[in-house]
């Protein structure tokens, strides 16, 4: 999706600002055009450098913040409430790879085949646009409901299949116009029949965010809206009597707009069209899942409607897309009365980024801090236990799992409100004797910095802690705002692997790569094995690499039968490149496996070897490092390479390339760009920075349309060797452009 609109769609967020169409999906919004600013500026937090506590006067760091976990006070089964996503998988359902999907144990997914325009584009009859959307839904469901993920709830957005994805044409024939629902019923019949015939299990969501005019122009809770709702409900119930029907998926919560919820619930109660699952969006500033979930339950009670599952099928707004915020939302969702919840998607919809949990690098998709926060939340298995819940701006949830012999706590701070010393006290250890050995508990604290990419968590604390008064206290520093933290009580944590791999490779060369596996836990690991592999940016095994054990020239190095607590084993691999090694970026990944405490352990880590362009080369923008909300796009023809970089619609996005110059001197830098009619009138502009120096503005005259590309040139000073060149939408720029590639020349 490009940063500029393909259709006139404003994306809203609760504050009333707006975003341009084509930016992120209209699905998630609650703002108008300016919301894209929040979107891109927020994404910038994910990839920006970390800030010290002293650097931010708004951050509290005066004293130790004390949090508690009571292992003896069990509350409810840990259901991974927040482990759902909105879109973030490719149209064919094949990407991203299982290595990023499986560890999250995703249990809910929401999509509607946003891809092809649907019923509206087919001129209100069943045609290729509707079929393409349905095909995408089925393909995604087959992937996501394949064992062991067969229990994933798939909420299909019927309004998306219909084509109402934000900014529908002015002449759109909305369902039940003038009381005529016949065409809408035809659409429901055809769509539900085909989805039911696919053999997958679907939850049918009738309409997304009808309280926003960009998705439902006739107005929510009007006669037409209720005609649309009731007719769809009855048709779905007739065609799929056992299926779950979900709604109303309002953008605003009962706390923010109680009158809308009251009108809806009163009508569906009277009409006998109450959805089986109540859905809403928690994307306000701040929609706390605990309080919103309770307000939903109260609203049902007030209208005499029996309680039923609640789904926050979009949560976490654009200006809170950091590792710390992700952990905060998941900690609060764990304590809420929601059945499931799905992360909103702010760079939607066929991009395989798992709603921003993955970051695109020149070497392929990679996890970021958000992914690791979700990954840590997925480790809250077994039974949830009582905690101090929220102290100031910091939330904590925890679980204990005797089957896995561990207790895990997740901590996150909402919008970076705290840095400084932290202490988590775990009480009630007598209720978990399997955690205590000789009066000691082994505690590990993982820091999850808000970084992208992030291939592994950082061990901030790992010690045997003495039990006193049936409790231990684990101290650590909350190092930087937007961090997330996981605290593990387990004798198997931490296990770590690292590799010293080259960051650039040349054809016909040989490299020695040491791989180190460390048993940081409090027990002996058995059958410890390591491996090393090279991958292309597509995630496929890289051609042109031969990797063998350095000591034996065998394809695999021998394992270690036993590795005692605190010990490491170093295995050296020889990596040889062929003389015809394809030019490109590569990822080297080391994997370590072991058995410990009856568990299978697997850890991995990666290093990216990035291709450097040379003077005179066409350096594709999409192969550079994207930050600040810059996004990949392919929806405008004429680009070179595999696509272009978009989302330059608000200050913050940037793309960085590395260009090698043989000699220092002045060079011309050519940018190939497009600047269409949407956005500010007149010439656009961007900032160019070389090697971290001061930015210089470059003018980007309008190109007439987003499908028309042009060139703009600016002189730059390069050093001999590698130069980093960044193009960004800076504070003094007009922005609103797409970037195809750059070329440096003498």
Structure keywords:
disordered N terminus, glycosidase, 8-stranded parallel β-barrel, alpha+beta, globular, hydrolase, 746 residues, 17% helix, 10-stranded mixed β-sheet, CBM6, CBM6 domain-containing protein, Ig-like_fold, 11 helices, 35% strand
Summary of the model, kept short:
By secondary structure, this protein is of the alpha+beta class. Helices cover 17% and strands 35% of the residues. It is built from eleven helices and 42 strands.
Note down, in words, how this protein is organized.
With 746 residues, this protein is an alpha+beta fold. It is 17% helix and 35% strand. It has eleven helices and 42 strands. Strands 3, 14, 15, 16, 17, 18, 19, 20, 21 and 22 form a ten-stranded mixed beta sheet that branches. Helix 6 (182-197) packs parallel to helix 7 and helix 10 (323-334) runs parallel beside helix 11. The two termini are 34 Å apart. Mean pLDDT is 90; it is low at 1-58.
